[in-house]
Amino acid sequence: DCHGLSSFLIIANTGSSRKIALMGQREKSSNNHSSRKRGMGRKDQKGGRGVDRDSNKRNQSNDAANVKSASKKQSEFEHQNQFVRKEIDPETSKYFSEIANLFDSNGVDLEERSVICGNALEETRGREYEIATDYIISHVLQTLLEGCELDQLCSFLRNSASVFPAIAMDKSGSHVAESALKSLATHLENPDAYSVIEEALLSICKVVIVEKPLEMICNCHGSYVLRTLLSLCKGVSIETPELRGTKSSKALAKRLNLKTSHSDENNLEFSHQGFPDVFSYLLSGILSCSREDMKYLQVDQCSSLVLQTALGLMVKQEDELLEVIPLVLCCNNSANGKEEGVLIETDVAKDILESLKDNSFSHLMEVILEVAPESLYNELFHKVFKNSLYDLSLDRSANFVIQALISHAKNQEQMGLIWEELAPRLKDLLEQGKSGVVTFLLAASQRLQSHEHKCCEALADALCSKNETRISIAPRLLFLDNYFYSQDKSSWEWAPGAKMHLMGCLILQEIFKFSSELIQPYITSLTSMKPEYTVETAKDPSGARVIEAFLASNAASKQKRRLIIKLRGHFGELSLHKSGSFTVEKCFDACNVALREAIAAELLEVKPDLLKTTQGPFLLRKLDIDGYASRPEQWKSRQEAKQSTYNEFCSAFGSSKSNCPKNTFVSDAPEDASQDVEVENTRKESDHRPTSGVKRHREEHARDKNVSFAGGKGTKQKKSKTSEATTDKPATKKKPFLSEDMIGKNRHSNKLRI
User: From start to end residue, where is composition biased (Acidic residues) (predicted)?
Assistant: First the structure.
């Protein structure tokens, strides 16, 4: 018994002043307890935390009618959600205060701590809501839930299931609910725990559905807890960026063709096999209860995030998505009077088109376009977007939907229709600050191998008039906003000292993925820049990526050396910067032995300073600078041998369609090794923003922000090997996803496919 282990269990009444004294004790002891210190950092402000924090600001961008409707509906939900909370008695406050002090003192071993946690959680029985929503005691409760045994945790969840929605919608209680779910996830490493955890999750889900989940979905705190619950049931890591409302760097890299492989369409991190039946039961219950209010849920920030998460978790489940997406888009699901094979009615398509300019709905539509099966994507493309692409591209919210539409185009036919609408207006898009649409148009053209030559020509025409030489294409893209915002474009010159434009640099990176025969004007423009301009480009984080993309292209080795020579005398300086070190490495790989020797000599001069940097030791080892310093002739012979071997390889196996750059030897690291980290910084500044509740960082504001591009280049992370679960069972008639009868099935009957 815990009472025999620690003296803190002796409780005494100290009067009504105990709460004030307890607050002082918590403030004093919080410095020593990491969990409570983290909890005390909760901000006491409206709108919640994380992605839910800026709800008021985001709603300002909606139409006046939508805002008025949303406010009225939200007030109605808040009125329904009023819950009378009893005050915590002084003895209970003292009890949990003593537990907090005991844990802070580190005077409890692991076995005693587990017993104390179990007994303390037992004290909450029947008072879970009051204790979990108390601002001070809730911090202690979080610590208890993180340190207790599985059976104690599941017992707490079952006992509190009836008030779980109310706890989740409370500012303090939501942190407790989140801690409980995260603690559950840590126990899933034990296969024997699945049945117990599934029972606890199912008890919570039943209450959430019965209690009309609309209130929880539209609550800024409840929305986040519900997203965590959905992710846990699906088997996805609770810390995944999609759950927190941000677009993962891998997803953005795939959209921009920055990764060499596009076979892995699923960017979710599956940490366990999940509970597919519980997930289906919870989601079908939520959707069934929300049919009448779906139009409101589409444009409400909190509920839109829940729908985004649910759809994102169903990626590749085409049959289920064909049922769920039409429901989310308010389509008539009844078979009567509905043409076979038609999912989007004409009147619904008009409503969707009008709603695309709403901030929250545009985020939702991005996810729909990302996960939609091809048949549904085709319907949306032709019924909603066709003949409206340019107008939507100019809108501050809808232009991101167009970017998603373009990046998920399925075939050359769709690319042709997109091209017909947007190609004549490329210059207008650039002038209006919507260069993100142009960037994704180039990426889709390269990915689908459609209209490649026309894209390159149209972009050049948008940047240079017919009577102008195209020698200035690259500088104008590097300073895209600076050029288009200048009053006299014909006399525009290089802007020394100005920050290079992120999207303009991304456009150049996309250009250099095309065949060299199609992009000769761009190659000539870049290699013809003055040496001081080339050096400035290499020093800029965004500009450095352009040089790396050019060196990785299939341009002639003579053209690459022409650019590299202009950087001579500056390789040591560049290597001291994180982004510049990658440029130096790419230059080394792309040049001949004589230039490699010159680079090695410059790095040797700055070796003491280079060793003090994060990237320095790796770069020195990769280029074998120590070998060059000790035995330069042998070092030179090794470089010549590598070069000769690679040339022979290209002669034997290379082809005109090969992506391998000529006259280079194989680098130890793939070209896209740091692209994931690069896009993490890209999304902060580009006019492609995350599909989330996070405030969009649009390009028209990016030029005013001093955000580094690709400042955190790193090494390629190992891809986890996954396999698709298969069964040998004969095919049976499949029950509709939205069926109400989802509880009695075996958890293993529908294995999760990864």
Answer: 669-679
Count of other CB atoms within 10 angstroms of residue 463: 27
Predicted TM-score of the model (pTM): 0.77
| Bigger pLDDT: 688 vs 340 | 340
CA 544, CA 277: separation in Å to the nearest integer?
Answer: 49
Residue 480, pLDDT above cutoff 60? yes
Q: Which of 219, 37, 5, 46 is nearest to 142 (CA)?
A: 37
Phi-psi region of 245 (alpha: psi -120 to 50; beta: other; left: phi over 0): left
- Cα torsion angle, 257, 259, 260, 266, sign: negative
How far, in Å, are 8, 446, 452 from residue 179 at the CA level?
Answer: 25, 45, 51
Q: For residue 713, what pLDDT is reported?
A: 40
Q: Amino acid letter at 435?
A: S
DSSP-based three-state secondary structure for 334: coil
Report residue 394 as tokens: 């100019």
Cβ density class 482-498: b for 16+ within 10 Å, e for less: bbbeeeeeeebebeeee
Coil, strand, or helix at residue 202?
A: helix
Distance CA 274, CA 415 (A): 37
Structure tokens at 97: 């205060």
Q: Which two tokens stand for residue 435?
A: 């260069």
* Residue among 130, 91, 89 nearest 9 (CA): 91
Q: What type of residue is 343?
A: L
| SS3 category, 354 | helix
Q: What is the CA radius of gyration of the chain?
A: 29
pLDDT of residue 114: 87
**Interacting residues of 439 by C-beta distance below 8 A, sequence separation 6+:** 256, 503, 506, 507, 510, 686, 688
Terminal CA-CA length for the chain: 45
Q: 508 with 519: CB under 8 angstroms?
A: no
> How does pLDDT run across 530-543, given as a tens digit for each residue?
999 999 999 999 99
Query: Please, which residues have CB within 8 angstroms of residue 386's CB and are 6 or more apart in sequence?
Result: 417, 421
CA dihedral in degrees (303, 308, 311, 312; nearest 10)?
Answer: -150
| Mean predicted lDDT score pLDDT of the chain | 78
DSSP state of 693: S
pLDDT by residue (tens digit) across 595-645?
A: 999 999 999 999 999 999 999 999 999 999 999 999 999 999 999 998 888
Angle (deg, nearest 10), helices 398-407 and 359-371: 10
Tell me what pLDDT residue 505 has. 96
Burial 238-262 (b: 16+ CB within 10 A, else e): bebbbbbbbbbbbbbbbbbbbbeee
Distance between CA atoms of residues 137 and 135, nearest Å: 6
- Asked if residues 256 and 506 have their Cβ atoms less than 8 Å apart, the reply is yes
Of the listed ranges 397-406, 437-446, 482-491, the least confidently predicted one is 482-491
User: What's the chain's length in residues?
Assistant: 754
- Give the C-alpha distances (Å, rounded to integers) separating 291 from 238, 324, 328, 361, 738: 27, 11, 8, 16, 12
Backbone torsions φ then ψ of 570, nearest 5 degrees: -125, 0
The half-sphere exposure of 75 on its side-chain side, counting CA atoms within 13 A, is: 6
